[in-house]
Design goal:
elongated; 8 strands
Length: 94
């Protein structure tokens, strides 16, 4: 499994809908990039200039909302993930 370094957060994006709201099948090229997903792993944090350690406030298993084009797409063993900086995560979902 992937272990993020520094303060990065590993997220499994939700699958985009295969049908439009009107029931029309959407090809891969027409699907919107997801903006939410499940936190898979969180990095240990990073040391700030003042010497304190910043640890991301997210936990494994939480669902988060992130910027549409935030993060780095990666693929491991055929599964797609995003490696995101905490500043690109804009909310948690209850």
């Amino acid at each position: 499994m992937i272990k993020p370094s520094h303060d990065f957060v590993l997220v499994k994006p939700d699958e985009p809908d295969k049908l439009s709201k009107g029931g029309i099948y959407l090809p891969e090229s027409a699907k919107e990039k997801p903006q939410q997903g499940k936190v898979i792993a969180v990095g240990p944090g990073r040391v700030l200039e003042n010497g304190t350690t910043y640890v991301p406030p997210f936990k494994k298993g939480e669902f988060v909302l992130y910027k549409r084009y935030g993060g780095q797409d990666i693929e491991v063993e055929g599964k797609e993930y995003l490696l995101i900086e905490p500043k690109d995560i804009i909310a948690t979902i209850d």
